[in-house]
Amino acid sequence: MKKTILAVAIPAVLFAGSASAVEILKSEEGSVDFYGHLRTELKAGVDTVDADDKKIDGTTTLGAGSSRAGLSASYAIGEGINAIGLFEFGISGNGGALENRLHYAGFDGDFGMLTFGRQWTHQDDYGSADQSYFFGGTALRYTAESGGLHDNLVKYKFNGESFGVGASYGLDEDESAAELYEIFVDGNIAGLGLIAGYAGEKDNVGVTETLETAAWTLQADYSIGDLYLKGSYYNNEYTQQNDKITEDALGLGGVYSFGKTALYGGYEYVSFDGTVGGVDISSSDIKDNSSVFYLGVEHKFNSWARVYAEYAYLDGTTLGVTNNETGVDIGPTRFDKASTVAAGMRVYW
Fold first, then answer.
1. Phi and psi at residue 281, in whole multiples of 5°?
2. Nearest in space to 254 (alpha carbons), one of 229, 219, 225
3. Which of 62, 81, 149, 188 is most buried, judged by most C-beta within 10 A?
């Protein structure tokens, strides 16, 4: 995988779930389903600012978003125990090339689910307060190298009646990936959903350098009639030789549904401190925080199709972490009170 954290993180999918998958095979022993969705997205360019405070014009794009499809299988192999597997591919780049997104196998039953392979981390599963389609996600501070996906992950999840536990370990496989470890717990008290979690990783980058990340989060959500609210806090720390960066991220998001239409919005604030290239961030020219506000509307024609549009206001500096052959570069993306819009459509099966 490309070891990059985007300056604006990948947004969470609003309203989890989709239309029923196409059933390819079904018997007493098990089933195989074909699922997926197609995305078309129009995004207005977002203007950024370089180190000399010169504006860089954004580029308007019309593309496939992250369209994907996959096969999932489940077969009974014992009393209350199933063998499961999933393969998913997606469309990447302007050329529309197919790429492997997910590939794992494992077991599930009353004991929970245990899977092995290329799959989403618990950080990505539990997410943050982000409710957007496009511009949110900055307050979800992924571990630097793995991001939301790990190639060699051993992952366990248990869902009880009022609580859940998630844990995982990512193998570095001869330093081809970061060594990752996660533990998350979630529960519900009188309708208040609570999440707490920790993720840490260690990756050898270059000849002598090691990048270590430690991230933890606290989250809460609550529903009042047709209104859903969620808040999240993330603390993340990068350490590489003499450089150390600490981030604090706060996210607030909400969705109000009426019939087939929903309004959603949120605010995210991230601040950071420390040293980059031996220079104290507080003494540099870059702004040491960022703010993102987004507001959008979604309409679901039915379980198979939906359209959505979103406005965002971005200001300040968002850090990105990029791995290269000689080490890890930590560099900012800067916005100066920029506004942008986007719209999209999805068709599910």
1. -60, -40
2. 229
3. 149
**What is the C-alpha end-to-end distance of the chain, expressed in Å?**
27
Query: 255 — phi, psi (to 5°)?
Result: -135, 130
- At 78, list the tokens: 């014992």
Evaluate whether 107 touches 79 at the Cβ level (below 8 Å). no
The CA distance from 161 to 188, in Å, is: 9
Over its C-alpha atoms, the chain yields an Rg (Å, rounded) of: 21
Q: What is the DSSP letter of 285?
A: S
Q: How far apart are CA 120 and CA 127, in angstroms?
A: 11
**Residues 166-172: contacts with CB under 8 Å, at least 24 apart:** 166/122, 166/125, 166/126, 166/197, 167/122, 168/121, 168/122, 170/121, 170/146, 170/201, 172/203, 172/204
pLDDT in tens, 11-64: 332 223 345 688 888 888 899 999 998 999 999 988 877 766 777 888 898 988
The answer, yes or no, to whether residue 122 has pLDDT greater than 50, is: yes
* 235: its two tokens: 């603390």
- Identity (one letter) of the amino acid at 323? N
Residue 282 phi/psi, 5-degree rounding, is: -65, -20
Buried b vs exposed e over 34-56: b needs ≥16 C-beta within 10 Å?
A: ebbbbbebebbebbbbeeeeeee
- Tell whether pTM > 0.90: no
CA-to-CA separations, 293 to 199, 270, 316, 333, 339, in angstroms, rounded: 26, 12, 12, 17, 10
Helix H or strand E segment including 122: helix 122-126
Structure confidence by residue, pLDDT tens digits, 238-290: 888 778 889 999 999 999 999 999 999 999 999 988 877 677 776 666 668 89
Tokens 């793995």 — which residue? Answer: 146
Closest CA to 181 of 171, 197, 164, 168: 168
DSSP state of 327: -
